[in-house]
């Protein structure tokens, strides 16, 4: 039994899942778990090992020695695989381009989901905000608060483009293709029963964070 309040957040690429969830977790004094970082780190490991990401058997073979860790520092969360700090590398477009290959392998999802559930159980914070694609439905369907964070595609592409150096066109194509491929594996475009949709298309960043924090506070009040 997990004593922490679990806040599950799913949504498509660029909807604000990680930045909004991180800020909300800070405001609430909760821990934060970015599940996409683990899929990205395993992808980094595959590319580093010269493995074709379409080779599911080779990817599954990587799982055994996959030494994935996250460390919270004053500068933010650092992600390491073995001795390598991959915090920045896992955000590179070369990773985004093939991460969906890795995420569609059932053995990968089972292994990572087990690890995520363990991290949730072991948190010593009063709550934890967990974000990804299947948190509300598969990883933590019994979470106290379950949110689908969305925004119109054009807005998501504009936000993502503003972060990355390459032109909007390639960002747009990659984001669309990744969402389409990911949606074949898990449904993060429609809210499952009991999941609250927050559409941030017309909200600025702070308003979106406030919407998440408000939902959590409302839920906490109901439980008192
Ligand atoms: N409501 C919002 N208004 C404006 N910018 C936002 C909003 N939500 C997120 N952003 C910005 O959009 C970008 C993508 O957000 P991110 O958290 O990386 O999305 P995701 O994790 O869903 O892919 C970030 O630069 C973030 O600061
Ligand atoms: N719970 C999750 C989280 C991520 N993923 C995969 O990991 C990739 C990277 O996730 P991410 O959350 O870092 O992606 P962004 O939305 O931040 O761009 C996604 O495109 C999915 O392929 C997943 O399948 N299930």
TrEMBL record:
Q: Which CDD domains match?
A: CMPK (cd02020)
Gene label: cmk
Entry-linked Pfam families: Cytidylate_kin
List, for all copies, the residue spans of the domain called Cytidylate kinase: 7-216
Q: What family name appears in the similarity comment?
A: Belongs to the cytidylate kinase family. Type 1 subfamily.
Q: What is its EC number?
A: 2.7.4.25
Q: What does the record give as the organism's lineage?
A: Bacteria, Bacillati, Actinomycetota, Actinomycetes, Micrococcales
Matching InterPro entries: Cytidylate_kin, Cytidylate_kinase_dom, P-loop_NTPase
Catalyzed chemical reaction(s):
CMP + ATP = CDP + ADP; dCMP + ATP = dCDP + ADP
- Taking the first listed entry, what is the main subcellular location of this protein, grouped into a coarse class? cytoplasm
Q: Which organism is it from?
A: Protaetiibacter mangrovi
The protein's name is Cytidylate kinase
Compartment(s) of residence: Cytoplasm
- UniProt keywords, alphabetically: ATP-binding, Cytoplasm, Kinase, Nucleotide-binding, Transferase
Q: Which residues bind ATP?
A: 11-19
Name a GO molecular-function annotation.
Answer: kinase activity
């Amino acid at each position: 039994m997990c004593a922490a309040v679990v806040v599950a957040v799913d949504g498509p690429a660029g909807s604000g899942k990680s930045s909004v969830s991180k800020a909300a977790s800070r405001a609430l004094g909760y821990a934060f778990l970015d599940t996409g970082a683990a899929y990205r780190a395993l992808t980094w490991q595959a590319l580093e090992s010269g493995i074709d990401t379409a080779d599911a058997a080779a990817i599954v073979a990587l799982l055994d020695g996959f030494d994935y860790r996250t460390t919270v520092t004053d500068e933010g969360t650092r992600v390491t695989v073995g001795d390598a700090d991959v915090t920045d590398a896992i955000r590179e477009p070369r990773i985004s381009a093939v991460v969906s290959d890795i995420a569609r392998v059932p053995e990968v999802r089972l292994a990572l989901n087990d690890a995520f559930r363990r991290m949730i159980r072991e948190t010593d914070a009063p709550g934890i905000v967990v974000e990804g694609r299947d948190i509300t439905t598969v990883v933590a369907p019994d979470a106290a608060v379950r949110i689908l964070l969305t925004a119109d595609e054009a807005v998501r592409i504009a936000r993502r483009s503003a972060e990355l150096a390459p032109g909007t066109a390639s960002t747009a194509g990659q984001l669309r293709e990744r969402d389409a491929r990911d949606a074949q594996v898990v449904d993060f475009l429609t809210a499952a029963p009991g999941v609250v949709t927050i559409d941030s298309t017309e909200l600025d960043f702070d308003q979106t964070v406030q919407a998440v924090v408000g939902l959590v506070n409302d839920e906490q009040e109901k439980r008192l």
